[in-house]
Amino acid sequence: MKPIKLDKKDYFRALLTDTIPSDVPIVFSNAGLYINSHVVKNNKDNYKTKIVKYLYETFIRPELDSELSVEERSRLQKSKSEPFKYKIIKNESRLRTLSLVHPRSQMNYLEIYRENSDMLLSLCDDNNFSIRSPIRICNSFYLNNKKQEVIQKSYKEVRIDTIEEEMFKKHSSSFYSYKGYDRIYKFYRSPLYREMEAKFSYMYMLDVANCFDSIYTHTISWASKNKDYIKNNYVSWNNQFAQKLDTIMQRSNANETNGIPVGSEFSRIFAEVIFQDIDVNIEKELDSVYSFYNRKDYQVLRYVDDYIVFGITDEICKTVSDVISDRLSDYNLYINNEKMSKFERPFLTEKSKIIVVLSNCLDSFDKKIFQEGHLKNRIYFYSKIYKKDSFMNKFMDEIRLIVKSNSNGGYAQVSSYLVSVFTKRISCSIDCYDSYIKNEGSNEIFISNISLLIELMFFYYKVYPTINASSKIAKVVITLLDFLDYNIDLKVYSPRIKSLVVNIIKGLSFDRYESERRKGYISIEKLNVVLMTSNFGDHFRLPSDYFEGLINSSDYLNYFEIISLLYYFNDHSEYLEIKNKVINIAMGRLRSYNIIKDDSELVHLLLDVLCCPYIPFEVRVKALNLANNGTKQLPYTIESCVDVLEDTYWFVNWKDFNIKRLIERNELKLQY
Known about the structure:
CATH superfamily of the domain at 124-134 and 175-347: Reverse transcriptase/Diguanylate cyclase domain
Strand order of the largest sheet: 8-9-7-10
CATH architecture of the domain at 124-134 and 175-347: 2-Layer Sandwich
Radius of gyration: 26 Å
Number of helices: 31
Largest sheet: 4 strands, antiparallel
Oligomer: single chain
Strand content: 5-15%
Shape: flat
Structural class: alpha+beta
């Protein structure tokens, strides 16, 4: 794999990876904000630059507004803002609240990266517990061979313009390089985990309850005050930097000191600084009070807010866990006792156990749906399935039995894993298609078996829908359809696959039942699979009444729902009536500049409405009037400005229908 170089001096690239949550609709990103930041920076003398600069300085970086005094610029830039808080599914019974902070606050986050990166890294460099922490500014990243060879197959995307190519590169890495593991499951498959099991007889798993919601922002100064590097190199800056971090985090969260916005990488780094200080205190106490030595009597590994304790005896594990609990409480953080798990060697968690049993079941499944003789070489040639319904029912019964026998969590324990397996099987069979046909394979069998996998994939998605699963499904379905359209012998099957997918999606209700009645919940996982079908064509659109459960059940739609619906409705005539309802709801929320300016959700909504070509021109003119703060003149007539804005975008690229590329960008962001 060849490294792809990144510009270390381009701090704006953190907008693409570090300042927003990864659990968002697939059409949402900070790509437009990144582009427009460079448009303003380059400051060319043209219509586009002037209107973009007007909006940018009004809502995002008032610190650049030369018409204001220096003091006023600074005050406005650092003023408080209200994050857009929304809920997603966490598990079968609970929701998780995420925050999309104001673009102005995101720029303040970038100021930390731009001016204090070394100091921030130094606060994360002294720890024996963490298995996920930043170590340096990222200057390159690696893509696997398949992604590097994406240009070689013409059914995949070949041409992208320079700025899009640059953004793909910048989407492909976080601002920092990290040590350790980017996902916790990778640790449990690593040599380090095997080493821990060989060395220690006991393992405890601890989880911090409501971690990000409980972090007290002022504790960042406690965490930094004892760092030797800071004391030796930034004596006069120590308190100032900690106060700066504290203030920026507070201002991005409506001046709240209790709790930090959940979802962004910046928040995880903020939390990491605090946890690293707690870790040091834990290790010191175990050494000085109990004479327990790390890596000898015990070993603690921490992944963000999850502690894994290994010990040579159960007593040591218990003592270490108690000390962790005590030192966390110093920072007003507490262990979730309900989620605490204890294991004696051999270490096998409930999730690991069910995956082992599932793997055996899937091996048997593969040997029936694929030609067994080729499987050992990971070559996926389809076999003919004679009784499809019987075959599917038998497999699904086996999964039900596994879930009932090995798990208390129901389908939640297996659905995402199974969706991932089926998407990979479809992708692998596409890659093997040419060889399959050369070996006297049948197109009808190929399509029939892929259809079977699609049905199973959607079933396990529907019983426990997640955003990650919806993105995987969207990507593999679009890849499959691109492949069918590219291949002259398979193109005839494209309508069959589209019909299958659309008919399945029709069974996904948008009525606000159960968790969907809870304020702030957004069914992003459903929106994503709907958005996936945006480019299916005239004959495969969802009926307008499909969306009535979402729109008519409430006069309130949030920002993500509005942009997703407008993107899907496009200018298609059959959605005109229901689209106008969505537009009226959006405009009803954009009432005045003073209401909009400090509200993250409304600023995002306003900027996207201004650029949306599917909203009537006169409505966008009205929206731009709302952007006027009464003190700053528009650079041109309001009609001219609206005309220019149709050729730009901020968070939704209304004219880009390459859903697959949007998904791939989001996939490459760090998650946890």
